């Protein structure tokens, strides 16, 4: 087992250079599926985070009740309405039919109301069958999805409670026990796990990256949604799920540290979005 603490020099290797002659779409096309009557902001935070980390196009799919507010927040988002208020099989069939054929990655679950578990499984399988790299969060983290994910390009991003729901084990307060538990489940199910916490644990079961944040301001709601968007954005350009998840966690943390330094303990997740391009400048490469 290889364990390393994340650093700028490591993460620089995980973020590909941009070709000077690249065209729209060459630097990533991302789908975000989330939102509900109550949680309208979560998929917006994920979508803008994906754009801010250098993704060319983001398609944001939200329930039709959220479409107007989502479009109003940012003209940069391409909004695809889900035909139902919650995720249903019918909504999934229509969504999959409306997606671009060259979609690179997707993140699913932020604030998403799911009416049928089978609808989520259908969406995940349909995207994986099209070789779309996936990041799953929040309501998408259910144990029934695990058999579909094995040995695919998938990242799951649970906090401790979601980890227990997904894997059946509760992470310990002991740092070493926590790391071993995450590694065990990542290896068992053939996926990359990013366990969020004071120290983020990112592992595929054979290599583990650790990122100690110490950013108490980031307990504010929505920082995990920003992270999910960053994971999908990184996955759209780097097919390696472990490297993409590690880079996303590191950039999310850098943005959080910068915002906390400016605003103290009074930040919102929207503040992170404006900071992402600034903290990513040292990682920019053009070839």
From TrEMBL:
Reaction catalyzed: (6S)-NADPHX + ADP = AMP + phosphate + NADPH + H(+); (6S)-NADHX + ADP = AMP + phosphate + NADH + H(+)
YjeF C-terminal domain ranges (all copies): 7-283
Pfam families reported in the protein's UniProt record: Carb_kinase
Keyword NADP: yes
GO biological process: metabolite repair; nicotinamide nucleotide metabolic process
Cofactor(s) it depends on: Mg(2+)
UniProt-listed CDD domains: YXKO-related
Residues reported to bind AMP: 224
InterPro entries: Carbohydrate_kinase_pred_CS, CARKD, Ribokinase-like
EC number: 4.2.1.136
Superkingdom of origin: Archaea
Keywords annotated in UniProt: ATP-binding, Lyase, NAD, NADP, Nucleotide-binding
GO molecular function: ADP-dependent NAD(P)H-hydrate dehydratase activity; ATP binding
Top-level enzyme category: lyase
Residues reported in the UniProt entry to bind (6S)-NADPHX: 42, 111, 159, 225
Family the UniProt entry places it in: Belongs to the NnrD/CARKD family.
Role of this protein: Catalyzes the dehydration of the S-form of NAD(P)HX at the expense of ADP, which is converted to AMP. Together with NAD(P)HX epimerase, which catalyzes the epimerization of the S- and R-forms, the enzyme allows the repair of both epimers of NAD(P)HX, a damaged form of NAD(P)H that is a result of enzymatic or heat-dependent hydration.
Matches recorded under PANTHER family: ATP-DEPENDENT (S)-NAD(P)H-HYDRATE DEHYDRATASE, ATP-DEPENDENT (S)-NAD(P)H-HYDRATE DEHYDRATASE FAMILY MEMBER
Assembly information from the UniProt record: Homotetramer.
Protein name per UniProt: ADP-dependent (S)-NAD(P)H-hydrate dehydratase
Naturally occurring in which organism (per UniProt): Marine Group I thaumarchaeote
Lineage: Archaea, Nitrososphaerota, Marine Group I
